[in-house]
Amino acid sequence: xxxxxxxxxxxxxxxxxxxxFIKIGPKAGANLVKIDGNSFKxxxxxxxxxxxxxxxxxxxxxxxQPELLFNETQLAKSSDFRDIYRNVLRPDSIGKIRLQTLSxxxxxxxxxxxxxxxxxxxxxxxxxxxxxxxxxxxxxxFSRGEMALLGGANLNxxxxxxxxxxxxxxxxxxxxxxxxxxxxxxVQLGVGFVF
Length: 195
What we know:
The chain is an alpha+beta fold. The chain is built from four helices and eight strands; from the N terminus they run αβββαββααβββ.
């Protein structure tokens, strides 16, 4: 993991030194999140995200796009949740589960035309606990984090950005036990603006 972080940092620094320009801006949009597993309904749940992004130009066709996003989604549990976790917690008291995450996507984008680009990359997400501060949440990153693969497309209309992407989680999110495996899938649609 340290090698991945060091490689990512070196790549970003190299991009900054080679970049002819760097653009930054805010972005926001909708998340459609589905958790695969018997504990949750087999449906996408609507949520939102908001944050900031940067475009680090590598060449006329290639650029890196790091982001920092806050995400929130209400997940609907299935009727199996009660059967699976009867002795672990009071499942009758839970109607929906609020999932709040801080995610750090990093994509490599290939500009096919002046207004259209394709993107692929990774995303690390940290589950946030509202009862803890950001530093305490960061300390729990490796036990409560998730790595995902991303793929999508972007429309670049002057300073205005429209993007859509799909993310698939690579690891089990279930931190209760190993009776049911939870993996995330997310469709993200949003808009942004660069300065």
